[in-house]
Specification:
- One of its GO terms (cellular component) is membrane.
- This is Cationic amino acid transporter 2, vacuolar.
- It is found in: Membrane.
- The protein contains 22 helices and five strands.
- It is mainly alpha-helical.
- The chain has a single domain, classed as Up-down Bundle (Amino acid/polyamine transporter I).
- The strands form two sheets. It has a three-stranded antiparallel sheet, with no helix packed on it. The protein has a two-stranded antiparallel sheet with strand order 1-2.
- The longest helix is centred in the C-terminal third of the chain and has 40 residues.
- The protein is globular and about 90 Å long.
Length: 641
């Protein structure tokens, strides 16, 4: 009986260990014995920087900006709305930097789920993947439901759509069905099944139409502004009528207008040159979105005083107030194209996340099948489209739209934590299938023979193996016999081990400090004494963690982690910690009703993982070996094959 043998205690320990087991980062190496078996799981390498920019911009710029400009200016920012968009864009850029590094190092389908599985563990990765499934399903349905009203406006009014496309109320059930929304979802699903390059080209055309509409708003609005003297800025209350606090509150609201660029990372496995193109695609997409948001907001708040803006149709009303009523048609076209592009961006990532989870054994293998002709996960795409289309047809998902933000913010937070782990405590053990036992024994034998030599390599002095079934260690430690080498090896290993422990505990306490600080700052119902105490303790943890991580060296093993030569996130640890702080604050402020709904979904996910994912995981019988010997084991396996 092994260390995790039978009994309730063994089952409990095994269950906990399954939550923290981590998979191997994709690299140039692959299992030769499984290459043929996995050939039908390969996606098409077809995307370049322009395709990625089209995906990023199309997924990010939705119709919400055509409404946010009015509501945020009226209620929070006033004429300072442009600065609110700038601050929100900078906050989104923090997450974009983290995504860019991990996407270039680990260019595989799955996005934040994939990164969390490699850096944090299986349990957290499952929750992130499960939350993203909810996000993309509800997000796609909500976007589809918003298209039919805009199409109706484009054709003359709410009753202008044909009967088979118009909304109808089912008598007795008080359910409003939307055939137009369902049809659009099914059309986009069919397009995504044709191929990644073809669907991206179409999304590029639709996104271009949206961008042209926003450029028209900027140019025509700028002309009117210079002609009329910018009445929206000539106000006695000044540029900050609600103060700096109002501007920051507006920034926290418009931040959600930047959600969508993470869709670029989900296509990492389909990019021709991921180390170069993924960071560029993410960076260019976010820069274009932020620039367009700022230009449109600067023009609109200058045309009309913020307090006189129409909260529902701020842009059309601003032009109408200057006698250009026909501009409403261009604005409506922009809103329709924005929604269509966002719908494509919502349905694109989910099949790839399902595929990544199925590859890892956490979901049925049905979702991992890739069509050999189109080289896309057709089965997962069809299931996603059917589910999103059904929801869009029967349900008004407006009340569930807040749940979309939870998945994204959780993903942003976990990606930032993964960057800290990658830099300071990168995984030093690699899981290998038990089929590698012969190769592992061969490497162990060679190391044992080399240990008798006086010029023994300190790095190979001791090769421990950690398995989740420790009954039979497959690679024994090799003792060091030379006294001086042994002493140096012990000191070196002790130093490395202590540094990793300090860094690991510091990252954990920093995250705890962030949670305490943001919770105390957000929950106003707490007594002031408790709030200030929690803020003080949380702030102390946060500041101490930042100082400690800034003072200790980052792990040298980070240079060998994943694919080298890609983008490197700057200002570590400051930038990831700031990203964690911002996203945690936004998460906590989503509201209790949203969290209650999300908790039910996550609880369902825990049950699915406990009864299926945990026992079917590809790491269930994995053997963990030191990362320094993986190359040697692969070579030995290839020579023995």
């Amino acid at each position: 009986m092994g260390l995790l043998g039978g009994g309730e205690g063994g089952c409990f320990v095994g269950g906990v260990r399954s939550l923290i087991r981590r998979k191997q980062v994709d690299s140039a190496h692959s299992n030769p014995s499984s290459s043929a078996a996995t050939s039908h799981h390969q996606l098409a390498k077809a995307l370049t920087v322009p395709h990625l920019v089209a995906i990023g911009v199309g997924s990010t710029i939705g119709a919400g900006v055509y409404i946010l400009v009015g509501t945020v200016a009226r209620e929070h920012s006033g004429p300072a709305l442009t600065f609110s968009f700038l601050i929100a864009g900078i906050a989104a850029a923090l997450s974009a930097f983290c995504y860019a590094e991990l996407a270039s190092r680990c260019p595989s389908a799955g996005s934040a789920y994939h990164y969390s599985y490699i850096c944090v563990g299986e349990g957290v990765a499952w929750l992130i993947g499960w939350a993203l499934i909810l996000e993309y399903t509800i997000g796609g349905s909500a976007v589809a439901r918003g298209i039919s009203p805009n199409l109706a406006m484009l054709f003359g009014g709410s009753d202008s759509l044909p009967a088979f496309l118009a909304r109808h109320t089912i008598p007795g059930l008080d359910v409003v069905v939307d055939p137009c929304a369902a049809i659009l979802v099914f059309v986009v699903t069919g397009l995504l099944c044709v191929g990644i390059k073809e669907s991206t080209v179409v999304q590029g055309f639709v996104t271009t139409a949206n961008v042209c509409a926003m450029i028209f708003i900027t140019v025509a609005g700028g002309y009117l502004g210079f002609k009329t003297g910018w009445p929206g800025y000539e106000l006695p209350v000044g540029y900050f009528p609600y103060g700096v606090d109002g501007m920051l509150a507006g920034a926290s609201t418009v931040f959600f207008a930047f959600i969508g660029f993470d869709s670029v990372a989900s296509t990492a496995e389909e990019v021709k040159n991921p180390q170069r193109d993924l960071p560029m695609g993410i960076g260019f997409a976010l820069s274009i979105c932020c620039s367009l948001y700022m230009l449109v907001s600067a023009v609109i708040v200058g045309l009309v005083p913020y307090y006189a803006m129409d909260p529902d149709t701020p842009i059309s009303s601003a032009f109408a107030s200057h006698g250009i009523k026909w501009a409403a048609y261009i604005v409506t076209v922009g809103a329709c194209t924005a929604l269509c592009s966002t719908l494509m961006g919502s349905l694109l990532p989910q099949p790839r996340i399902l595929m990544a989870m199925a590859r890892d054994g956490l979901l049925p293998s049905f979702f991992s099948d890739v069509n050999k002709h189109t080289q896309v996960p057709v089965k997962g795409t069809v299931i996603t489209g059917l589910l999103a289309g059904t929801l869009a047809f029967f349900m008004d998902v407006e009340q569930l739209s807040g749940m979309v933000s939870v998945g994204t913010l959780l993903a942003f937070t976990m990606v930032a934590i993964s960057v800290l782990i990658l830099r300071y405590v990168p995984p030093d053990e690699v899981p290998l299938p038990s089929s590698f036992q012969v190769a592992i024994d061969s490497v162990s034998q060679r190391l044992s023979e080399s240990s008798s030599s006086t010029d023994i390599n300190v790095e190979n002095a001791k090769v421990p193996v950690v398995s989740f079934d420790d009954a039979t260690p497959l690679l024994d430690g090799v003792p060091v016999t030379h006294p001086r080498v042994e002493k140096a090896a012990v000191r070196f290993c002790f130093f490395i081990d202590q540094r990793r422990k300090v860094a690991g505990w510091t990252i954990m306490f920093t995250c705890i400090g962030v949670f305490m600080l943001t919770s105390a700052a957000s929950i106003l119902s707490l007594p002031d004494s408790i709030r200030f105490t929690l803020c003080g303790i949380g702030g102390l943890f946060l500041l101490s963690g930042l100082i400690v991580l800034a003072c200790i060296d980052q792990d040298d093993a980070r240079h060998k982690f994943g694919h080298a030569g890609g983008f490197t996130c700057p200002f570590v640890p400051l930038l990831p910690i700031a990203c964690i702080l911002i996203n945690s604050y936004l998460l906590i402020n989503l509201g209790g009703a949203t969290w209650m709904r999300v908790s039910l979904w996550l609880a369902l996910g825990v049950c699915v993982y406990a009864f299926y994912g945990r026992t079917h995981s590809s790491l269930q019988n994995a053997v963990y070996v030191p990362a320094t010997h993986v190359d040697e084991i692969y070579q030995s396996s290839a020579s023995l094959a």
